[in-house]
Amino acid sequence: MKTRLVSLPDFKKAAGRNHDTPISFKQAEMKPTSFLVSWGREKTFCIKTYGCQANVRDSEILRGYLLALGMKEQEDFDGADLILFNTCAIRENAENHLYGELGRAKETYLKNKDTIIAICGCVMQEEKAVRYVLDHFNFVSLIFGTNNITSFYSLLEDCLVHHEGIVDVKSNSDLIEEGFPEGKEGRESKVTAFVNIMYGCDKFCTYCIVPYTRGRERSRKEEDILAEVRCLKEQGYKQVTLLGQNVDAYGKDFHDEYAFASLLEKVAETGIERVRFVTPYPSDFKTEVFDVMKRHQNIMPYLHLPIQSGSNRVLKRMNRRYTREEYLEIVKALRERLPDVFLSTDIIVGFPDESDEDFEETLSLVREVKYDAAYTFIFSPRPGTPAYHMKDSTSDQVKHERFDRLKALIDELATNRAKEFVGKTVEVLFEKVSDRNKEMISGYDPHNKLVHVRGDSSLIGQIRKVKILESRTYSLLGELVDD
Ligand code: 5AD
Ligand code: SF4
Q: What is the pTM of this model?
């Protein structure tokens, strides 16, 4: 296929951001042309989303665009008229997975050469990856980035009208677009909703690709966020999760360091049943946020606070801007105010030249904090980040052994903590039929513990009391009790 390169991503541009340029705000282009509407009628699409909640939310917006054309969604590629991959670049295996899936998509394309195959998301923010796709998968019709999802209609139309492939990836963005349909159309759940409060990241942890793929930190206006939450509440949503790479940096670009605590309070005051947020950055976190959590019963007693490593030497090399001791102080301040809070974290094992002593410090920190859950990763070198070039003499075998030891410790802590739930009654917001057993309904308790009960789909969207009968490491089994 002939491909037109409108713009290619540029990592250097993303890293050398000019923070003097003010952020501008604009209403997103939402209306499809009659050409697109007549193309889309009777057609089907399939979206495959990888990675974090930011990608999930972007896919929801894109799904909204496609449904507005009258298209129908299907779960698998086979027979779909449009296949969209929303990609994740955080670790190498996520990127490799994309290439495997593209191989599969090729079979669909060969059966019907009118199939539109589109790729967006973080992997497409890397020039090398874009060139690799163009060289190896020349049936791909459309490539766009995280900063131009709102140009989706015009890109798609261009591709259809001119019968050519289009690559348009903006490297950076000083723009926030508003006005997406807030409603249920594109959202994955009818019960819980993600609400972006900010985009991008300015932290530049040395291992992380996100600051290059998602651009500079920029905060949405408070009134737009609150309007979205109110609208979701009116539509019957029971829970909102406020999203940002560092939610506590919310408002920094308009010079208000306490803006997150104040925003969180206002979101709680809308009266929506449950409020959650991800992800705070330890050293930016203001204890005022804990006070707000304490004042409002509808802010869930759960905090995901990434530590990444328990060793000060490694934290420094990661460019994390806190020490182990400072992190422990924050945890202490949290537990003094909210003793019942659940705490989870992210940990990277095998960062370049992590020594046995460094790793032991991570284990000892995990024991000291007694996390309720932790997401653990083996360091994956990402091209373009500083850690990619760091000397590393630790063997893969040692890294895997460390990973297994850490995982065993975390599972042990989580299992013990889960046992404490047995016999207690918790309030569960039911979200969906269980993946494994269609006679079970699953939901979450305020601490973000997954709970399964026997029941039917009429429970979805309800908050009900559940007596816990049995615990597993990462889930609980219970039965409904009458209110
Ligand atoms: N290798 C391994 N894990 C990573 N993360 C981010 N970048 C990398 C990488 N290059 C992890 C961090 C982060 C989580 C979302 O992913 O722990 O908090
Ligand atoms: Fe990546 Fe660090 Fe930003 Fe989190 S804070 S997105 S780990 S650079």
A: 0.95
